[in-house]
Design goal:
heterodimer; A: 167 residues; 82% helix; B: mainly alpha; 8 helices
Chain lengths: 167, 157
């Protein structure tokens, strides 16, 4: 079964139809998606800025990473769940806007970058986090994260614009 | 002049009609700046308010966090104001009839009011009254995130 067929099944399901037809559900899901991403991506961007040495320089990088993590993960859960609902309702239409698969690819890239950082540097942050100069790789992960998450937001915001163009 | 008439005269002003004639790509660009500014404001106030709630960067003093985040809030406010006006002016009549727009404006005014009164008062102190700090944080978070939520609803109502 192709992606588009699968999305069509979701689209035609009871939940998909109910979401599209409800006066309130759609703006609520969209609004919650935005709030979840402001919490998760917002705090990640602040963490990245700390990592590359632009923001909160007097705050320990270990504190920034660990104390904000529950909020980052919680925000993600909300963004992910509402994102799934949006796909459920409008998948076939959204899938055909090239910027959407691009957005998914960038999310995967951002996730891999975060995992790589976590395994390579996350566990030893107590050691390198107190030094004046952070390891090059850790800073690079910060820059990659800044760029890729920003690109995710840009792609997401452009979905309705490119949609209107293709109609 | 009524608000409705004011909105209409804004929309038909030379400035607004000139803006409206620009390439629609600039409109999409304005939306990107709008969300960038929004993210700056929300992440900055979230960082400070989580600290006030006792759930964020606990080892930093509140004034220290405020000093670091205030520039982000200002840059964010400039970005959302300019991109917001760009979007609003050429279509003012449309916004006048949109209940989500008015909810957003009301929440925004309240958020700014809290920002320059309670929030400022609580965050200059190294050890603010715990209850007042928590009430301020909850109010500030509810209002600012409410602005974003209502803003997102404008296109759907």
């Amino acid at each position: 079964m192709s992606v588009i067929n699968f999305l069509q099944i979701l689209h035609d399901s009871q939940l998909g139809t109910a979401l599209r037809e409800s006066l309130y559900m759609f703006p609520i899901v969209e609004g919650t998606h935005l709030i979840g991403l402001a919490v998760s991506v917002g705090l990640i961007l602040l963490t990245d800025l700390r990592l590359v040495g632009i923001f909160l320089k007097t705050v320990s990088v270990q504190d920034v990473l660990h104390q904000l993590r529950p909020w980052v993960l919680g925000g993600f859960a909300v963004t992910f769940a509402t994102g799934i609902l949006l796909i459920w309702a409008e998948g076939p239409k959204i899938w055909q806007i090239p910027v959407f698969p691009l957005k998914l690819t960038l999310i995967a890239l951002s996730g891999l970058n975060a995992l790589w950082f976590e395994f390579k540097y996350g566990r030893t942050v107590a050691e390198w986090g107190v030094q004046a100069e952070f390891p090059k790789g850790a800073k690079l992960a910060g820059w990659v994260s800044l760029a890729s998450w920003s690109a995710v937001i840009v792609c997401g915001r452009l979905i309705p614009y490119l949609d209107a163009r293709s109609l | 002049m009524s608000t409705q008439a004011l909105f209409h005269s804004l929309q038909i002003s030379t400035f607004a009609t000139d803006l409206g004639k620009l390439n629609p790509l600039y409109g999409a660009l304005a939306q990107l700046f709008h969300i960038a500014g929004l993210l700056l404001i929300l992440s900055a106030i979230l960082l400070v308010n989580l600290r006030l709630l006792g759930a964020g960067l606990q080892r930093q003093s509140v004034p220290q966090l405020v000093k670091a985040t205030n520039p982000l809030i200002w840059y964010g406010l400039i970005l959302v104001a300019l991109s917001g006006l760009y979007t609003f002016l050429p279509a003012a009549d449309l916004y006048y009839h949109n209940p989500a727009f008015w909810t957003k404006i009301l929440l925004l005014l309240l958020a700014l009011l809290i920002q320059f009164t309670l929030y400022r008062k609580v965050t200059v102190s190294k050890s603010p009254n715990h209850t007042l700090a928590k009430v301020t944080a909850l109010l500030s978070l509810t209002l600012w995130f409410g602005v974003a939520f209502a803003g997102r609803a404008i296109g759907f109502v």
